[in-house]
Design a protein that fits this description.
alpha+beta
Length: 96
């Protein structure tokens, strides 16, 4: 990949990350179980259920709990690790 393309991709990722909302994986857990519907509604109240949500972490392990909780609650959730994010970035970001 040419350097100019890498710079463009890095800038686009940086812009998307500035608009990101941090939802720690521990916020969807009650001990070792996923929280109930009422509690998850409170965790996800800042999200629009009519828009896709992208969940990611460096390796994807911790984000999988948040992704699973989002799917349980009916969100159109996508799960990526940081390594997967760049090659799968849509031309129009999910969080626009």
């Amino acid at each position: 990949m040419p350097e100019s393309t890498l710079v463009h991709e890095a800038v686009r990722l940086q812009d998307d990350l500035r608009r990101a909302i941090s939802i720690p994986y521990t916020s969807v857990l009650n001990g070792r179980k996923i929280k109930g519907e009422e509690q998850l509604n409170n965790v996800f109240m800042m999200l629009d259920k009519n828009r896709p949500v992208v969940v990611f972490t460096n390796t994807g392990m911790k984000a999988s709990a948040v992704w699973f909780a989002l799917k349980m609650m009916g969100y159109d959730a996508r799960h990526y690790s940081y390594q997967d994010w760049m090659p799968n970035q849509p031309s129009k970001g999910y969080l626009e």
